[in-house]
Amino acid sequence: MKSQSKKDQSAKRKNNVQKFMQRDQVFDFLTPKATPKLDLSHNVILYLEDISVSFDGFKAINDLNLYIEAGELRCIIGPNGAGKSTMMDIITGKTRPDAGMAWFGQRINLLELSEAEIAEAGIGRKFQKPTVFEMLSVEQNLELAMAQDKSVWALLRTKITSEQADHIDEVLQSIGLIELRNDMAGKLSHGQKQWLEIGMLLMQKPQLLLVDEPVAGMTHQEMDRTAELLTSLAGKHSVVVVEHDMDFVRSIAKKVTVLHQGSVLSEGTMDHVQNDQRVIEVYLGE
Fold it and tell me: pTM for the complete prediction?
């Protein structure tokens, strides 16, 4: 009896594993949740107005006003401690300001949403250090990025629809990794991992991308490719790039915002801000 019971249990476990590994089902977590409608009727996708936040008496953001247009590629520069990272933390809900307003389009109040809800509304953030799943293939990383259930088991069980497969191909083409789709992410170069992480954001179809120091540690060739990639995204998405490499900023930027002590010091073309005496004194140097 005990022997038969063990056989039954073993058969049941085997059946459950086989069922779990089947990719013949479309799961709810691949269906995007309904989010508030993004209203771009005024052609502005992001409003930060009179934003201030302090940490232990230090004012990291001080009466900040910033407006990003729909489809714009904006570069944000400034010295360390200028408030660039804190600004992105506020936009993505990681930090709540002490005062001010933050709106995504005309209708979505970012200060009323959680980090997850902000991501679902259409704001994606890429940090400086790439965080890809190195033991998965490039394509599997993109599949996992589109799922709301972020477990590898969920990925293995999931059947990809034809529409989702087309989107994966489109993203692979955009990030220049279509020929490496079956390679393990851990084998990619530093620059390729950065592109893959941008691709993972694109799988979620964000309206606004926040990209933090994308070319740090890259070769010149990788920097050129990254410039092409970010430039190609503008128009279809609004892109905000925080970067210290001035040559890279000049290669992609039509409009640059300089932050200093938590507020906007200067704003305009790269030529304009580079010739602004205040920017020279606090950031670019003589």
Answer: 0.82
